[in-house]
Amino acid sequence: MNTPSSGPRRVALITGAAQRLGKATALHLATHGWDVAIHCATSLEAAEQTAAECARLAPQGRFDVFVAKLHDAAAVQRCFANVEQHFERVDAVINNASRFELDTALDIGAESFDAHLRTNTLAPVLLAQALAKHLQLREAKGVVVNLLDQKLHNLNPDFFSYTLSKAALECANTMLAQALAPQLRVVGVAPGLTLKSHMMSDADFAALHQQAPLGQSSRPEDIVSAIDFALNNPAITGTTLVVDGGQHLAAMSRDFSLMTSGS
Asked: Of the residues 11, 29, 160, 196, which has the fewest C-beta atoms closer than 10 A?
């Protein structure tokens, strides 16, 4: 893990940082020398709680909440501009937030596909674009970390729009790394089954989590460690770190969320 720097604190914008993996990442960065812009769409109270917890862990840091609906391109651009103005510098963007709604090849529609693509693909690209322009003005270097999904390396047809949008983001991961170097590095992190969803019981989650070649899938601290590595290794760009206990090596005919005892 990276240790706190004695220099000025870097600034990271984390989308979807109110809870779950976004919150875990914010808390980690707070204790490792970063100021954090905590983005949320609707979970304002939870985001403010995350900011307060960060401040308790790192009283010397700055942790502030920024609200934006990621499906709205103009709101995404305003969000970055507000973060830039507030902190006067941005060094990293961690695209953690995702739209994740069930549809299939038989019922996918334009509205569902558009909403997933705008949130999961276009918003991260716009934030990478904004960061690159900001870094050029500062004559500085920075990094974008895109949260992807191990299922891109182990495809199944569930959550059709979500999967397509994440596949597009992984492609953008490579293209952005090519286009925006040397100012900007772009790295993907693809978790496996990490946190229980509302669609599964504790027992189902525990059983599915163990169905990986390493005997367990990813834990939140594993994903945060990979994000930390991506942020701090200056020689990595245009690639994806698959952090899943090897789950992508074992064929799955269904998405984990639907592989429950009640399915």
From this structure: 196
Task: Please state, in angstroms and as integers, the Cα–Cα distance from residue 141 to each residue in 44, 55, 138, following that order.
Answer: 31, 26, 8
User: pLDDT of 139-152, one tens digit each?
Assistant: 999 999 999 999 99
What 3-state DSSP class applies to 189? strand
Give counts: helices (H), strands (E), the chain: 8, 7
Question: How far is Cα 175 from Cα 171, in angstroms, rounded to an integer?
Answer: 6
Distance between CA atoms of residues 22 and 95, nearest Å: 9
Span 151-179, pLDDT tens digits: 999 999 999 999 999 999 999 999 999 99
Query: What are the Cα distances from residue 213, in Å, to 92, 111, 257?
Result: 33, 38, 19
Whole-model pTM: value is: 0.91
How far is it, in rounded angstroms, from Cα 178 to Cα 128?
12
